[in-house]
């Protein structure tokens, strides 16, 4: 977590929300003062399990006006890299953890006429904090919460008992109440912003619906912590400082290949294109950007890339390493 301030926290509570989702409440240890955060922020949680180290990003789901604690929800993923299993099985109340200061890549757009929040499954988490902010702003908003089966949604009892309940619409696809994205987006007043957090197919559905009705791209916002696809054509990466040339095969990332060959020492944190820690300057060639960190302008400039996830557009890339 080199680019982020590290914070020592204590797990003060763990609640089972569903059979696969737990909520963790984190309070500062004796040396820490928790920085305030804005709604939509995430933190990285550092986990050490023997020789393995994980740094997973989780949205903060408590109110940004609650300055005494951070709350995150962790879904136990069947095929996780280990982080979610660690949180579920090895973390107990009273344990100390290291987390990063909050960072926000999914903030509410200032001045939006209306905010439309679309959550798929565990993608509800960043919206749990946005609801507090939107109420505080007295903003116009709706939350559409989509899930497959009536038995699986996290936080619905809490939402339905909250002051936000009239703004929440649940869409259960197994019951035939799937969200009609085309209809929703075509009826939005001008100046609305749409925020989506969920699966790749939900994100794509929103993108396509927006395109169909000419909804402006810059008013669409997406939160997605795991890169769906880091694979692609093989290419050569050249490390300019040492002159080392490496072949990046179609299944590996540049970072993995450099680490495997011990060709340079690279700092990394999320390894999912979220945190920016592995940002590297491009000297020759063009990147096929897959990250969620760089802005559109930064991507277009082809000045730098996130080597934990992005690839080359051509056959060769020269990096300032
Ligand atoms: S390690 Fe976080 S963006 Fe690459």
From TrEMBL:
Residue span, 2Fe-2S ferredoxin-type domain: 235-321
Record EC number: 1.14.13.239
Highest taxon above the source species: Bacteria
Pathway the protein acts in: Amine and polyamine metabolism; carnitine metabolism
InterPro entries referenced in this protein's UniProt entry, alphabetically: 2Fe-2S_ferredoxin-like_sf (IPR036010), 2Fe-2S_ferredoxin-type (IPR001041), 2Fe2S_fd_BS (IPR006058), Beta-grasp_dom_sf (IPR012675), Carnitine_monoox_B (IPR039003), FAD-bd_FR_type (IPR017927), FNR_nucleotide-bd (IPR039261), MRET (IPR050415)
Reactions catalysed: (R)-carnitine + NADPH + O2 + H(+) = (3R)-3-hydroxy-4-oxobutanoate + trimethylamine + NADP(+) + H2O; (R)-carnitine + NADH + O2 + H(+) = (3R)-3-hydroxy-4-oxobutanoate + trimethylamine + NAD(+) + H2O
Listed CDD domains: fer2, PDR_like
Cofactor binding notes: Binds 1 2Fe-2S cluster.
Biological-process GO terms, alphabetical: carnitine metabolic process
Molecular function per GO: 2 iron, 2 sulfur cluster binding; dioxygenase activity; metal ion binding; oxidoreductase activity, acting on paired donors, with incorporation or reduction of molecular oxygen, NAD(P)H as one donor, and incorporation of one atom of oxygen
Main enzyme class: oxidoreductase
Cofactor(s) the protein needs: FMN; [2Fe-2S] cluster
Residues bound to [2Fe-2S] cluster: 270, 275, 278, 308
Ranges where the FAD-binding FR-type domain occurs: 4-109
Keywords on record: 2Fe-2S, Dioxygenase, Flavoprotein, FMN, Iron, Iron-sulfur, Metal-binding, NAD, NADP, Oxidoreductase
Family recorded in the similarity comment: Belongs to the PDR/VanB family. CntB subfamily.
PANTHER family, A to Z: CARNITINE MONOOXYGENASE REDUCTASE SUBUNIT, NADH OXIDOREDUCTASE HCR
Record's function text: Converts carnitine to trimethylamine and malic semialdehyde.
Quaternary context: Composed of an oxygenase subunit and a reductase subunit.
Protein name: Carnitine monooxygenase reductase subunit
Source organism of the structure: Xenorhabdus khoisanae
């Amino acid at each position: 977590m080199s680019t982020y301030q590290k914070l020592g926290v204590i797990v003060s509570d763990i609640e089972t929300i569903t059979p696969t989702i737990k909520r963790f409440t984190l309070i500062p240890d004796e040396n820490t003062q928790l920085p305030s955060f804005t709604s939509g922020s995430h933190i990285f949680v550092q986990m050490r399990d023997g020789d393995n180290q994980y740094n997973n990003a989780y949205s903060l789901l408590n109110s940004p006006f609650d300055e005494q604690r951070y709350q995150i929800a962790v879904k136990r993923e069947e095929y996780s890299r280990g982080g979610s299993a660690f949180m579920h099985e090895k973390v107990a109340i009273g344990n100390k953890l290291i987390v990063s200061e909050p960072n926000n890549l999914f903030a509410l757009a200032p001045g939006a006429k209306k905010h439309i929040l679309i959550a798929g499954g565990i993608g509800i988490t960043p919206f749990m904090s946005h609801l507090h902010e939107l109420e505080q702003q007295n903003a116009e908003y709706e939350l559409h919460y989509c899930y497959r089966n009536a038995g699986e949604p996290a936080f619905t009892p809490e939402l339905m008992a909250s002051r936000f309940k009239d703004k929440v619409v649940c869409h259960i696809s197994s019951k035939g109440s799937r969200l009609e994205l085309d209809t929703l987006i075509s009826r939005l007043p001008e100046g609305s912003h749409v925020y989506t957090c969920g699966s790749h197919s939900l994100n794509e559905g929103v993108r396509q619906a927006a395109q169909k009705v000419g909804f402006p791209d810059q008013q669409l916002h997406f939160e997605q912590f795991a890169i769906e696809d880091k694979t692609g054509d093989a290419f050569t990466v050249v490390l300019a400082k040492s002159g080392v040339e490496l072949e990046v095969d179609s299944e590996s990332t540049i970072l993995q290949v450099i680490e495997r060959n011990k060709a340079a020492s690279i700092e990394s944190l999320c390894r999912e294109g979220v945190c920016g820690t592995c940002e590297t300057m491009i000297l020759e060639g063009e990147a096929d950007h897959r990250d969620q960190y760089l802005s559109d302008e930064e991507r277009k400039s082809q000045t730098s890339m996130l080597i934990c996830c992005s690839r080359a557009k051509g056959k060769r890339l020269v990096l300032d390493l």
